[in-house]
Design a protein that fits this description.
The protein is α+β, with helices and mostly antiparallel strands. Helices cover 52% and strands 13% of the residues. It contains five helices and four strands, in the order αββββαααα. It has a two-stranded antiparallel sheet with strand order 1-2. A two-stranded antiparallel ribbon has the order 3-4. A hairpin with a 4-residue loop joins β3 and β4. α3 runs antiparallel to α5 and α4 packs across α5. The longest helix has 22 residues. The N terminus is likely disordered.
Length: 149
């Protein structure tokens, strides 16, 4: 497998994702969609069904929103230094798995792995930047635009 082409027949490289039992993550718990419904995730890159994913119901969405609200209530009480450490830890895990994430993203959207690696890196860099900025906030308005912070 190269950075620009994924061989759909390469077996082991992609088989784990094809056969993985994908779940919803709600409130820190991996679970099936209500009723167990799934749908075929069609890959524009592979031009076929890549895997089955949970088909979230309105109840699943409501549960996710409620869980996010509850998490926000807890998160706001976490000191900024601890929050930054948690987010930096997330960035480290993402960086360790950037190639896997890029391959999955390429399969899902039909883009090249190379460009998806760039997206992964940009997202991780943004997390790290936000952590740095958290210590600089002091009531100032930081100018931003669609292309930069």
């Amino acid at each position: 497998m190269t950075n620009d082409v994924i061989d759909a027949e390469s077996g082991g490289d992609l088989e784990w994702a094809r056969t993985h039992e994908w779940k919803l993550l709600i409130g820190g718990e991996l679970r099936d969609a209500e009723g167990g419904a799934t749908y075929a995730n069609q890959s524009p890159l592979l031009r076929d069904t890549f895997c089955q994913v949970p088909n979230a119901t309105p109840s699943d969405v409501e549960a996710a929103v409620a869980a996010a609200h509850n998490a926000q209530q807890e998160w706001r009480d976490v000191p900024v230094r601890e929050r930054a450490a948690i987010v930096r830890g997330l960035g480290r895990v993402l960086r360790e798995h950037r190639e896997e994430l890029a391959v999955l993203d390429a399969i899902d959207v039909g883009n090249t792995v190379t460009s998806m690696l760039g997206d992964a890196d940009m997202g991780i860099d943004s997390l790290e930047y936000i952590c740095d900025q958290a210590f600089r906030l002091g009531g100032d308005v930081i100018p931003s635009a669609a292309t930069h912070f």
